[in-house]
Amino acid sequence: MLANIQSQKTLKLRDLIRAVRACKTQADERSVISKECALCRTAFKDPNNQFRHRNMAKMLYIHMLGFPTHFAQMESLQLIASTKFAEKRLGYLALMILLDEQQKVLMLVTNSLKNDLGHSNPYISGLALCSLGNIASTDMSRDLSGEVEKFFRNPNPHLRKKAVLCAIRVIRKVPDLIEDYIEPALSLLGDKNHAVLLGTLSLILEITKIQPNTIKKFRGKVKTLERLLKSLVLAGYVSEYDVVGITDPFLQTKIIHLMRVLGTGNKEASEKVNDVLAQVSINTEPTKNPGNAILYECVQTIMSIEAEGGLRVLAINILGRFLLNRDNNIRYVALNTLCKVVNKDTAAIQRHRNTVVDCLKDADISIRRRALDLIYALVTKTNVKALIKELLNYLALTSGDSEFKTDLTDKICVVAERFAPNRRWHIDTLIDVLKTAGNFTRENVTTDVITLISRSKSVHEYTVYRLFNAVKESVVREASLVQVSLWAIGEYGDKLVSSGGAAEATEQGSVDGEDQKFQHVDESDVLDLLKEIMKDVTTVAATKEVVLTALIKLSVRFTEEKSRIKKMIGAHRNSLSLELQARACEYYALLSGSLDNVRNQVVAPMPVITKKKKDRDDNNLSIKGASEAKKDDSDEDSSSEESDSEEEDSSSSEEEEVKPKKKPTKKTTKKAPAQEKPAAAPAPTGDLLDLFGGGGSTVSSQPSSQPPTSTPVNLLDGLFGPGPTTNTPAPAPAQSSPMDFFGGSTPTPAPQQAPQHPAKVVFQNNGLSITFNYNIPNPGVTEVTATYTNSNSSDISNFELQVALPKFILKRSMTPASSTTIPANTGGSSTQKLVLENTQHGQKKMVVRVMIKYTLNGQNVVEKTQIGQFPA
């Protein structure tokens, strides 16, 4: 029995492996491991155990299987203290695997490491350096830094290499020791051994990364790096360093990387490396991965330093060749790099535009997304038509991946708005997007199309004919296209059926040689189409509601089909849909003869739709993502991006309708000094609630010497139409009354305008930025409009903002975010409104805690922060 125990104690590692592999169940494996651990634990207590290294090898195998081996940590220290090389080697291996820098036991090994670093056997010193480079703690790094530095001058290249790599660990733990390694690192740049050179370059890069102010100390060695790189490029076949015909590609890429760090922001250093980078780019073979790695590093360096124009074109051409590679990884790297450098040489990238467009057809979704981002950045006024045409063709061919199609439609719409050569082309593009993408378009696209049509008076005939034919010819009628078409038919139905409407539409559509002919449309044809839409089983309830609204609009625009319109509306008074039934009943009552005057006012043509200032800001944000890459458009004035689109097209006929509705400048809202005459208040601005065209009284723009006096006002005046004009000055209301739907004036004097407060960025992290716009209508009440933007290259989805408030703060209202998806590259924004009341106003400051949840690159992110930047 004793002999059996002795045999178990001397069990070899290979026997243990066989025993574990022979186990049929997990319980059998645990049993074998438990017995072996017990035997090893017993053997560790024997000071004269001659199989100590064998037991430690078994402990390493057991650790690899995932079983606890903490009881063997002290045994590794005893093996390190052994005089035998085999035991010392296994002890250092166990030290690096079983322990980490957090273990207190590690303090006991510092002295052993110091002794072995000074050992006469270079292999033992190498083991100590390797272990120190892997598990050195802050204290060990500070204590043994001097010993490591001595090896920089060691004649053995094996030890010099290990010392350089160990020094990287030391300066990461103790950055204060960097100054001690700058001169030794510079002295090793002339080393003949490639392994030592590679380690030295890694050390220098780490030093410049930790302390960027040390870069200037290494710039004197640019010539040395240039000579070294040339020798590698022009060297013949060297078997020791050859990798598929390229001499030491690892060292070449590291040298080029260091050149990029030294040349960035320094013209003199950049000029020194220009020639060698051109030589490397031309002489490196791009058919193998090592060559591609060197070329990619060259491109990165050329685009980072102050390189010559020809060298930049060469770098772009290299990336263009990458796009033709069969390897998807190389193509993705090329697209990603082109997206980063598109601002630096757009003209050179334009030469590869067709290749980039072809990448949209790739099966890999990541390549398609990067190609889309690059195309989005390449659009200019000169190529917008060609690129949009390519994108629309691809949109028609692609299937599946609804998220990608949604991103594609958003980018098409933003680019069309930014670079549209004329209104007609812009409208055509948005209609094509609605026809092709349909339900993949976001709600804001439908709103933007309606707004654009409203403001494009010169092409109203063409637009309504184009939309009518688009819906009539569509096999699958998408809800977004149908709703826009119904709105246009309801508003401009009289132009659709007029005698000269088809000819006028044909004339408006003849632009740039693209002649379009339209046939005359009868009133019955329009109503037949509306009836067909109502009976279509695929028509959603929201579209049916728009059909009823279009019918009531057409009741005053069509002269021959009024009875049929009334019958079509009355047919839905018993609809199962509550909203549809309510509209039908109200519209049917409105068609009675006694309400003719009311009906004419209610269904009068809508005024030109203008965007609020906030909407225009959001639009500018979405445009900014495309315009940042358009540095070559020097003729574009920066102020044009902030101006309203009717100011851009000041020559269009609708300018006269929009201009009177502009808000007064800030100068007119300030209080006049005591010695000056008080100026009359400006005319009231157009209210979005004034949907049916009612207007208030006009006021004189001349200053008055007498302060305005309040006069009694009849509440019914101007209810169903504009009131009489008067030249008497009247105070301008600070804000429209929610009940002033038809433009009537209010009898009570308007309160003073609430003070405006500048917007503040209250949160910015991980590419997400949250800006608060404040308004304080009453003391203690704060209205917050939060704007969310995303500067990442990927969209943020599933966005949600949760607010936690102290007891003294009441949340009056909080609307949902306008969109749970925030487009990438600041290509758009999402907004949310919140109204808070501080019940202890003047005693405690407003403060809230928020939790932000969203998904970015497939990862769920939760952010928490406290916001106290509220105005007093």
Tell me the overall shape.
Answer: elongated
Oligomer: single chain
What is the H level of CATH, i.e. the homologous superfamily of one domain? Gamma-adaptin ear (GAE) domain
Specify Rg, calculated over alpha carbons. Answer: 38 Å
The CATH architecture designation of one domain is Sandwich
Which CATH top level class of one domain fits? Mainly Beta
CATH fold category name of one domain: Immunoglobulin-like
The percentage helix is 40-55%
**Largest sheet strand order:** 3-4-5-8-7
Low-confidence stretches: 1-8, 613-755
Total number of β-strand segments?
A: 10
Report the end-to-end length measured between terminal Cα atoms: 88 Å
With helices defined by DSSP (H or I, 4 residues minimum), what is the helix count?
Answer: 38
Structural class: alpha+beta
Name the average pLDDT.
Answer: 79
> Into which percentage range does the β-strand content fall?
5-15%
